[in-house]
Amino acid sequence: MNILQAIILGIVQGLTEFLPVSSSGHLVFVQYLLGFHEPLLAFDVALHLGTLLAVFVYFKEDLVNMIREFFLFLFHLASGKKAGLLLSQYPYAATSWRVIVASIPTALIGFLFHDSLEAMFGSLSGVGIGWIVMGIALILSRKIQNGSRALNQMNAWDALLIGTMQGVAIIPSISRSGTTIIAGMLRGIQKNAAARFSFLLSIPAIMGAALLELKGGILLPHIGSGALLAGFLASAIVGYLSIAALLRLIQRGSFFVFGFYCFILGILSLVYSFLNGGI
Question: Which residue has the higher pLDDT, 168 or 216?
């Protein structure tokens, strides 16, 4: 892999990690177009870490407040104060707990089904089918009315449903941001709040996925350090811009338009797969 190819894949990752079009599906598709017919999971981890940096930078104030209030909550809880009262007093601590609760079903799905779902990353036809399913879900999301509940009004059931949908999004071309935002909208959460929670929830998900890949050590025989760094930086910069763009699009009510893109791309993927021997 050369630096130009790494930058292209980094841009693809940065554009698609947070937009509801599936970064993993795009990486599979573009890797095939670039001639990489085997999963580049190690390189994909580096790209995901780039987008993780984008989340840290974009939501740095929220994250600082979440960490600060989380420890304040634990301190006062140990002093004997009631948890419910403390959570109303420290709304960022409440958000931290919801992220933790939502991460539980995601982790369970990833742990139990990681190997079988990982095998799907090499199937372009499977990616195409997933895109079609995702496209239909996004188009139908237009019918969901904007909810009335803010981020600090979420409950444990909201978090569990959203976290479960994030676990399902391990499947290539099923968008993590798309499924989690739609799940939040279905629970009556404001679209913008659902999107912000989705971004915050991506932090433990991306870190967990990276650790899972790194647990046995990863060799990068075909990827130099320069290409690895170029891909990482490209995904971080473009990822930051994508977060800002998606929040604006959701505010304008244009979230569903990505469904048409996914549906068309799914059809093209199936055609491409068929013309190349059903890869």
Answer: 168
Quote the CA–CA distance of 269 and 267 in Å, as a whole number.
5
pLDDT at 101: 96
pLDDT digits (tens, 9 = 90+) for 245-274: 999 999 888 889 999 999 998 998 889 888
In this prediction, residue 213 carries a pLDDT of: 65
* Whether the predicted pLDDT of 234 surpasses 60: yes
CB 203 within 8 A of CB 52: yes
Predicted model pTM: 0.88
Domain spans in the chain, listed from the N-terminal domain onward = 3-275
* Dihedral sign, Cα of residue 170, residue 176, residue 182, residue 186: positive
Q: Whole-angstrom Cα distance, residue 62 to residue 150?
A: 15
Among all chains, which residue has been given the structure tokens 């979440």?
66
User: Is the model's pLDDT at 212 over the cut of 80?
Assistant: no
Alpha-carbon distance 250 to 141, whole Å?
A: 12
